[in-house]
Structures are given as C-alpha cells and as structure tokens.
Amino acid sequence: MYPTNERRLVARLQEYWNTMRGERAMPALANLRFRDFGPDIEQCVVVAVGDTPDELSLIRVGATLKPYGWRAAKGSSLADCPPRSLLGLIVQHVGETVRSRTPLHRGGHFTNGGARMLGRAILLPLSDDGVRVTHVLAGVNYKKAARETAAGPVRTLRPPRLKRAKARQEHATGM
C-alpha cells in the first residue's frame, strides 16, 4: 500500500519503492501498482531505459509533467522532449540513476513556464531482471519560488558590491 502519512512526495515515493523492492536491490516495473499512487501519479513519470542510458522511451507521464503541446505517446523517444521543460530536466538525470543503481534526489530552482520555481525530485531505478536498470520512476513536486510574485521577480535585498561599498563609505563619513 502506498504510504499516506508522509507529506513530502519524494519521501512517499522512496518509502513505496523500498516497500516494493523487499530484499532485492530494486523493484521491477511489474511490482508497481499505479492505482496505489492516487493523485501523486500526475507528478510522476516512468521511462524505459534502452541499451544505453541515452535510449529512453516513455512508459507513463503524469499531466503535471507533460510539456504543454507535446504529443508524446507510450513508447515514444524522450529525445524529442523539450529540453527546457520540467520533464526535460528530470530526464537529464536518468543516466546518473542508471549508473548508480540507487535512488537519486535532486532539488533546487528551475524555470517552468517562465516562472522561477523551487522543487524536489526523486529518480528511482527499477529492474526487471534484478541486475540491470530497465526503467526509472521519477516524481517531482514544486512551488513558485519565494522571490517570485505575480508582478515578476522581487529584487534582492542585498545590493550589488559597488553600491554596498559606496553605502559603507557614506555611512563612515556620516552622509
């Protein structure tokens, strides 16, 4: 059963992945029950890994992650995914997940639809044969960055260096 007492998406996904893998290094795609994910499935993507980590094809993508206007279908190559999209950012880390064979956490600022966002992502390796990573399950949650408003970015409160030096000088001379 998918955990419900954890409020963070990446922690819920990691807990589910650990439950599904049992004593194995990684669970298989067949072990996942997407109906257990509830609304979280809209923030997840599953990709199939080909013979090389660059050969990625789409298995499932949630509505939250699907780039606007992108008509990807199951089995389509992710090489055509818009690189500056949220899905494109996640796909950049699949190779690292395949090489490490362990969950990969990423977080930080990015741009989505022109807005500055703050997000967390987790990429979880899956293996159908117990040896090679054959799929990656990824989930991401995000929110508008604190410095972003409807009117645009808020100017930083820290002045640039030249202004700071001038302000110190004015303060020292009592101006």
Structure description:
- By secondary structure, the protein is α+β, with helices and mostly antiparallel strands.
- The protein has one domain (9-148): Beta-Lactamase (2-Layer Sandwich), CATH 3.30.450.
- It has 4 helices and 7 strands; from the N terminus they run αββααβββββα.
- The strands form 2 sheets. A 5-stranded antiparallel sheet has the order 2-1-5-4-3. The protein has a two-stranded antiparallel sheet with strand order 6-7.
- A hairpin with a 6-residue loop joins strand 1 (44-49) and strand 2 (56-61).
- Residues 153-165 have low confidence and may be disordered.
Q: Fill in the CATH topology.
A: Beta-Lactamase
String of helices and strands: HEEHHEEEEEH
Residue ranges: pLDDT <50 for 5 or more in a row?
Answer: 153-165
Largest sheet entry = 5 strands, antiparallel
Globally, the shape reads globular
What's the short story on this structure?
This protein has 4 helices and 7 strands. The protein has 175 residues and is an alpha+beta fold.
Write the layout of secondary structure elements.
Elements lengths: L8 H13 L22 E6 L6 E6 L24 H6 L2 H7 L3 E9 L2 E12 L8 E10 L3 E2 L2 E2 L7 H13 L2
Antiparallel strand pairs: 1-2, 1-5, 3-4, 4-5, 6-7
